[in-house]
Amino acid sequence: MKKRNKILSIFLSGTFALAAIGLGVGIGLKKPDKNPTADVVVPKEDIVSDNEGNKMNDGVFHKLPTAMLVSQTPAKTETSDDMKTSVNVVATITPDDAANKAVDWTVAFVNASSAWANGKTATDYITAEPTTDGALTATVTCKAAFGEQIKITVTSRDNPEASASCTVDYKQQFEGYLFTASQTGKTPTLDNSTKKGKIYADFNNAEQLKITYTYKKSSVYTVALNDSEIAAPTTMDVVIENTALKTAMNAVKSGSGDALKVTAANKIFALNLFNAKIAEGLTPAQSNSIISALTATANTSPVSFSIKDGAGNVLAKFEIEIDTSALSGQKKVEKIVLDQTELVFG
Length: 346
Description:
The chain is mainly beta. 8% of the residues lie in helices and 34% in strands.
């Protein structure tokens, strides 16, 4: 006969020992990088949290929550090529003097027939391995990102109706920013992998150059990552790196060659750079001097775009090349000189 009253409840407690990963921790966000050309995001502190949003600290025992959130990308260990991040959990039997405290640990998809889980095995993503057969302590390991909620259940061998479980979710990971450039009548480009770009100098084109950004996120998850959890690009510093070009610009208008700070609006940085707007109010000689300086920068990257978050961290820095082909026919007449100033007939 089952001893239904012998075991009153089972609780899970967790001590989370999280593997350090080179790119940082917390919903896949990266720690600030010393390389200013790299994508940088302020890391989120919470690594594992319960259903109420409480952080589940390493070294502290936690009672079983109704849900658990894994918010760290599984990382390779030094001794294995498998992708892993592990946590130790402990089940507590009541009463403490129960004769048979042996338990079994099982892992299963909450909805094994879902589009994502169909044909997959839950233990390829989450495992719960007891330290010894029937042990109350088990190591729960996240081996890979999963797209269907998983449930871990611990069950008494003495009383199979005494069990406890918690669902495990996987947080969508942030994988970087995607920046694009656009300008009516032109085809500027930004390469997010090389952090190189190309824009156009055209003093007959009044259209603004626009830099738009989006967030790249992982495709496999059970809990979505909100944009508000990511450090948003807020400002862009446009810096004239070429000394001769900077000197030429400042010579015609003080400060025009200094760093230009642009603020994002609706995920767009819009600026007038080397277009008709920059030539407004300039004399033909001044305009021509800038055209000459720009043309001399061929095959170089005389300008940089440093995109920053609200705290001033550099999220991306692009080295910008300038296509000056349109300027070849845009120099203006500065003056006219006759070879003769006086003619005499007769």
